[in-house]
Design brief:
3 domains; Structural Genomics Hypothetical 15.5 Kd Protein In mrcA-pckA Intergenic Region, Chain A; Arc Repressor Mutant, subunit A; alpha/beta; 18 strands; six-stranded mixed β-sheet; Rossmann fold
Length: 633
């Protein structure tokens, strides 16, 4: 009752009653997500759903306070809910899955929530939730931390700038997070080799690496699972003993354990590989044929797999020779070539197994000295700011009512904001949407509801006719499936017009882009329309397809600068130098195009790129790689 009384005093009795009927979605159950879950429960949210794809790793335990040693390898979302259940008055619903999986998490599933709270460390997933927020006009609070730095960004679709309104720089520092099971970048393998493997084999404190031995600590009643964990513990102990005995004849056993047996065990965890490429373990023949290579090797060269294995054996042998002399405790030092080569080769062999590009030893030397661990206190501060801001965004604070949304504040720690060094937090006001943002400004969005029968019967031609009539588009248009950038229909590509939506591989959750390719006499074009296909039951729909009521505005694209053949050569501009005020390179539409080659217009386009008529100027713009991992926890 004490907790409820405190919240009631803050928000008022009427708002507290409303709060108990609100649903919120927390995306991510890691460092920030654990704190968000706790805070939302303490504030009295009526229903809290939490999504996370990952399982708990040993490296999570120092900051993700809901997890214990016995929880290792358990799903984060379900374990987090189980940990807080005893003090929760909220309805808690966990999910283990990829939030971008449209089969598990369709648009109508997101529509049940009043607000989204992000606690993600993945740029692609953050952009996806941002786009869902824009589709559904639901508020989103974005957050992230890196070491002692952190920030929150409230997002009100149509009112404030969205996550993609500002360019996201690739971070230069990386926290140690979720690297043990599903690495996707070289840095993940480097962190695994340096912070986990090296410490496990060559430092004196092995207690945290071996795991518990009490049967009550396994976190499962499955006898086979307990037997497997015990076996892994014994194998880990054997590896340590091989190193301490300085038994170089068994270095091959270390290789086989790390890069064959452990990978084979990972492959048995089916949930990990539903949306990821499976790793490919090494072969025993490859390891058995390796040798201790004492030859000097160029540290600036990318070694092949055989060289990596040979140098791993060499470096491990040298460290074995040293370990007794150094009291069984060797610290990693990027300037110590033995430790550096061990970490580099272990990381590169793991990269090879997971299909990740390998790095030179010199590159790894630079990266290994630049790893930042996540700080539990920063996560707690940022999560607290997120949940308090959620109250204001939902107008639950009588003394801080928001009228437009633009009077709500962001929050940055001092170093992250670059605004003030005199105080820990800076809180600038939110900005309106960036007019050049491809996510919230350059396209219109809507949800088209179609029945299963409509999916099988309606053709692309019929869909296009309906869209033209409903939204007053001209005769020449294009249609693109944004999931794989497939051109479905264009003014001179009509091969697929008679295919049904299902034959065109469109389904529940597909996002398609409908664009004006003609314009009007004033050279104005209809804004591109991004459509989310939602498949509904026949009983829930009056028609086979339902189009939303939308006002699609006109816009004027940048003018094409026609080349004047009469110009003096000295005044001509090359395409590389010819840019409009937005820095967009304007290219001649006929440059490099064969008039008889129709494939030139069968292009792939994304809503995240400037959308232009194929009869107008072709536009080229550089974008950051969407697959970069944002190293915020």
């Amino acid at each position: 009752m004490g907790r409820e009384a405190s919240i009631t005093r803050i928000v008022g009795p009427e708002n507290y009653a409303k709060l108990q009927h609100f649903k919120c979605l927390i995306v991510g159950a890691g460092g920030i997500g654990s704190e968000l879950l706790k805070d939302c429960i303490l504030m009295g949210f009526g229903e809290i759903h939490i999504v996370d794809l990952d399982t708990i790793d040993l490296s999570n335990l120092n900051r993700q306070f809901l997890f214990r040693q016995k929880d290792i390898k358990q799903p984060k979302s379900t374990t987090a809910v189980r940990a807080v259940q005893h003090f929760s008055n909220s309805k808690l619903v966990p999910y283990q899955g990829n939030v971008m999986d449209t089969k598990q998490f369709a648009l109508h599933w997101f529509d049940q929530f009043d607000i989204f709270l992000n606690g993600l460390d993945n740029l692609a997933a953050r952009r996806y939730v941002n786009k869902i927020s824009q589709f559904l006009k639901k508020p989103l609070i974005e957050s992230g931390t890196s070491g002692f730095d952190g920030y929150i960004q409230p997002i009100l679709p149509g009112t404030t700038e969205c996550f993609d309104c500002t360019k996201k720089e690739t971070p230069k520092t990386f926290p140690v997070c979720t690297i043990r099971s599903t690495p996707s970048q070289p840095i993940h393998c480097i962190v695994w080799a340096k912070n986990f493997l090296f410490n496990q084999l060559f430092t004196s404190d092995q207690s945290s690496a071996t795991g518990g031995s009490d049967d009550n600590d396994w976190g499962t009643n499955d006898k086979e699972e307990i037997a497997r964990i015990k076996q892994e513990t014994n194998e880990l102990h054997d590896l340590q003993q091989v190193v301490h005995r300085q038994d170089k004849a068994h270095i091959a056993d270390i290789l086989k354990k790390l890069f064959i047996k452990d990978i084979e065990k990972l492959l048995k965890l089916d949930n990990l590989w539903k949306s990821r490429s499976k790793p490919v373990p090494l072969t025993e023949n490859l390891i058995d044929g390796a040798k201790d290579d004492h030859n000097a090797t160029d540290l600036n060269a990318v070694w092949n797999l055989e060289e990596q294995i040979n140098q791993f054996i060499n470096a491990t042998g040298k460290l074995m020779d040293r370990i007794a002399q150094e009291d069984y405790n060797i610290e990693f030092d990027k300037d110590d070539q033995d430790t550096l080569v061990f970490v580099a080769t272990a990381a590169n062999i793991r990269s090879h197994i997971f299909g990740i590009p390998v790095k030179t030893v010199f590159d790894i030397k630079q990266i290994a000295g630049n790893i930042i661990p996540a700080i539990a206190t920063t996560n707690a501060i940022v999560a607290g700011l997120s949940t308090l801001t959620a109250l204001r965004l939902l107008n639950f604070l009588p003394y801080a009512k928001t009228n437009s949304g633009l009077d709500v504040n962001m929050a940055f720690t001092a170093r992250a904001s670059n605004l003030s060094k005199d105080r820990y937090l800076s809180n600038p006001k939110l900005a309106p949407p960036n007019c050049n943002c491809a996510v919230c400004s350059k396209v219109a969005r809507g949800v088209v509801k179609v029945t299963k029968q409509g999916l099988e019967k309606l053709t692309l031609s019929q869909l296009i006719d309906l869209l033209k009539k409903k939204y007053d588009y001209p005769s020449e248009t294009s249609l693109i499936d944004t999931s794989d950038q497939r051109l479905l229909v264009d003014f001179d590509f009509e091969d697929l017009l008679d295919r049904t939506l299902s034959q065109a591989r469109l389904h529940d959750g597909s996002v398609i882009l409908f664009s004006d390719e003609e314009g009007n006499e004033r050279e104005m074009y209809k804004k591109p329309l991004e459509i989310y296909l939602q498949v509904v039951e026949e009983s829930a729909a009056e028609l086979e397809i339902g189009l939303p009521s939308l006002e699609i505005p006109l816009f004027k694209p940048p003018k094409e600068e026609e080349e004047d053949e009469e110009k003096e050569p000295s005044k001509e501009k090359s395409p590389e130098n010819e840019k409009d005020k937005n820095g967009i390179v304007i290219l001649d539409e006929d440059e490099g195009k064969d008039e008889n080659d129709n494939t030139a217009v069968k292009r792939s386009r994304s809503p995240d790129q400037t959308l232009q008529d194929t009869k107008k100027a072709k536009v080229s713009k550089n974008f950051d790689d969407d697959d970069d991992i944002v190293e915020l926890d």
